[in-house]
Amino acid sequence: METLAMMFCALRMADGARGVQKVNIIFLNLLQSSQLLMTFMGTLLLINTCFTPLAMAIWGHYLPGYKTFNDANNSVFMIAYSKGDIEILMNINSFWSLIFMLVYYLLPIFILHSAFHMA
């Protein structure tokens, strides 16, 4: 309960400090950045969720990390985080793995870049 009261007091002080011009500029920049970040994260989640069934179709028969939707979704996120073992994926199915990697790395770069700069 005390934590909630301290958070409320901190928010009230931050809201009251908005009258100062420099604090107001910082506050508005943080607000705009958080809105852009939410757009970025929403688009990233949508793209990863759309690529998950394709990853299941390509590697689901061979690797246990791609058998269920949740496991495949986590594995696709790991590829985005550069922690996926691309050599193993390329050895399983070279053609479709190459297409998946090219589209997965290039498409989000262009879409997310434009989404992050749209405002």
Terminal CA distance: 38 Å
Strand content: under 5%
Average pLDDT, all residues: 83
Supply Rg: 21 Å
* Helix proportion range: over 70%
Unreliable stretches (pLDDT < 50, length at least 5) are: none
Largest sheet: none
Instruction: Output the helix-strand order.
Output: HHHHH
**Envelope shape:** elongated
User: Helical segment tally?
Assistant: 5
Beta strand count: 0
Alpha-beta content class: mainly alpha
What can you tell me about this protein's structure?
This protein is mostly helical and 119 residues long. The chain has a domain of 81 residues. Helices cover 81% and strands 0% of the residues. The protein has 5 helices and no strands. Helix 4 crosses helix 5. The relative contact order is 0.11. The mean pLDDT is 83.
Compact summary:
This protein has 119 residues and is mostly helical. It contains five helices and no strands.
Layout of strands and helices, then pairs:
Layout: H1 2-16, H2 21-59, H3 69-80, H4 86-92, H5 94-116
Summarize this structure as a short list of keywords or feature phrases.
0% strand, mainly alpha, elongated, 81% helix, 119 residues, 5 helices
